[in-house]
Task: inverse folding
């Protein structure tokens, strides 16, 4: 591993830093929320921002793993989707925290807000994380209600199912929680409201007037004092926002919550190699292979990686390691292409991890399964299917990190989004699509040529060149991590140097729930 900083390292590092700067600029857009005017108006009302509320809620000097910060990027909606979600520690308990951003259209929910909130609930349920909702929302963004109303009911369904599963839910209401949003506190186990700030009602005074003719005001209809004294919806009455957050911390302290997974090994050893080197491993051109072991030894404890079948199926490195004291089985693409041997090796390795109740970490850099007459005759379809079968029916927790390419069915076999990894993160160098841009454009060109020949028509070479250029540009832009992250196909684009920390936070959250593998039940493996 000592030769890493040789020829090309600084060039690769420079490309990665340039891409990181683009991601950071996008993150700044999310942090800006509704912009300076909205922020000033919000502060003028004596209110804290969403992230300030989260900071006061969490234990001092503990990390917050923000999830899907780029949701909505590239869409007509504000980057971040007017909600902050993530995992943090409250009174020593790892919790899933969501906070509406009221500086963005009053915290109203758009289609990306819904998808982001549903993903957060999914993570909470899979990992048995208590949920704390910091609520201040005007409800659905009405112009886009057609994309919110019908699927949006799942938000309330999730709250009831979390409670039924014994996973605590806490709602802290700082402002409006109206219409459907009223069911967030209504369906939470614990509800905290703020004096003269919280407003929770199915219909506000104007709607009540229209529906019934009744005259009412915000306080008598849905204020914190009324809900604490009359309706009983408020379990706790807070004097101001800091008091509400202190109360939420006390609620969590009294949950009697315990992790159900095994504890990590105490005092884990750091890697022997510098995490800064992770900036210079992935080439700017993903057609150039790189050794994923260079990543592994800079992430795992003591840089110890016990490889499984190192001489068989060498395009996929598999082996055992620990990250911050938690055992992991690692599958890392070495040269991009997956052959039959790699597929069979992966299936066996995944079965072993399930026997041992060890979570799996997938490090992606694959162009997919190998094609061609020799490989089709050699059974690449059934062997690739064997690997995908193993991934799909594995029951140990999975974490995926897209480092480089993640194309075609190789994305599936390496536990892409559709295969329910507990967490999936991308590096700024990652790309994911049905195939590479040049390959996809080339396939379309070949099909067009064959079609023209079959019809006896001349082929327009200039039009072909323009088509290929257009398709390549489209696929390239749609393969980039910010585009994919904006659509919640990952849980965030991370700095490679943060990989070990992010994995540790994920593994700790995962071990809040039992960690148990499948004992059989993999279906039929075609041999």
Result:
């Amino acid at each position: 591993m000592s030769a890493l900083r040789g020829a090309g390292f600084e060039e690769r590092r420079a490309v990665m830093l340039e891409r990181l700067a683009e991601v950071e600029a996008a993150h700044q857009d999310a942090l800006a929320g509704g912009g300076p005017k909205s922020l000033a108006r919000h502060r003028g009302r004596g209110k804290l921002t969403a992230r300030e509320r989260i900071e006061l809620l969490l234990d001092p000097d503990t990390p917050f793993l923000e999830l899907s910060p780029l949701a909505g990027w590239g869409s007509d909606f504000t980057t971040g989707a007017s909600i902050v979600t993530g995992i943090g520690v409250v009174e020593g308990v790892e919790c899933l925290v969501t906070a509406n951003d009221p500086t963005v259209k009053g915290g109203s929910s758009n289609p990306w807000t819904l998808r982001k909130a549903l993903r957060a609930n999914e993570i909470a349920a899979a990992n048995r994380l208590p949920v704390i909702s910091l609520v201040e929302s005007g409800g659905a963004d009405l112009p886009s209600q057609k994309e919110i109303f019908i699927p949006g009911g799942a938000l309330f369904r999730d709250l009831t199912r979390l409670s039924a599963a014994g996973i605590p839910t806490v709602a802290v209401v700082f402002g409006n929680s109206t219409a459907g949003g009223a069911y967030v506190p209504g369906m939470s186990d614990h509800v905290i409201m703020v004096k003269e700030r919280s407003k929770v009602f199915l219909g506000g005074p104007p709607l009540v007037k229209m529906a019934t003719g009744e005259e009412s005001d915000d306080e008598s209809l849905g204020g914190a004092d009324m809900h604490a004294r009359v309706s009983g919806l408020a379990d706790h009455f807070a004097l101001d926002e800091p008091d509400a957050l202190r109360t939420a911390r006390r609620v969590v302290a009294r949950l009697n919550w315990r992790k159900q997974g095994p504890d990590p090994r105490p005092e884990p050893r750091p890697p022997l190699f510098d995490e800064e080197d992770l900036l210079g491993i992935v080439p700017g051109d993903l057609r150039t292979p790189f050794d994923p072991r260079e990543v592994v030894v800079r992430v795992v404890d003591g840089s110890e990686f016990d490889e499984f079948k190192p001489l068989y199926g060498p395009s996929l490195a598999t082996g055992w390691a620990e990250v911050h004291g938690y055992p992991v089985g690692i599958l890392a693409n070495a040269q991009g292409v997956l052959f039959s041997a790699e597929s069979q090796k992966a299936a066996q390795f995944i079965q072993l991890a399930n026997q041992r109740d060890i979570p799996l970490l997938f490090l992606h850099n694959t162009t997919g399964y190998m094609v061609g007459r020799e490989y089709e005759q050699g059974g690449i379809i059934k062997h690739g299917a064997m690997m995908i079968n193993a991934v799909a029916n594995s029951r140990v927790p999975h974490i995926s990190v897209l480092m480089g390419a993640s194309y075609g069915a190789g994305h599936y076999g390496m536990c892409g989004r559709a295969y329910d990894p507990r967490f999936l993160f991308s590096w700024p160098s990652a790309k994911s699509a049905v195939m590479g841009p040049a390959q996809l454009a080339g396939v379309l060109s070949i099909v067009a040529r064959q079609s023209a020949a079959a019809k006896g028509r001349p082929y327009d070479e200039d039009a072909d060149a323009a088509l290929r250029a257009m398709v390549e540009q489209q696929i390239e832009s749609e393969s980039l991590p910010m585009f994919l992250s904006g659509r919640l196909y990952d849980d965030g684009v991370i700095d490679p140097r943060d990989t070990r920390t992010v994995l540790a936070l994920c593994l700790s959250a995962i071990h809040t729930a039992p960690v148990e593998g499948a004992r059989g039940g993999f279906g039929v493996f075609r041999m």
Residues 260 and 513 are 5 Å apart (CA to CA). The longest helix spans residues 9-32.
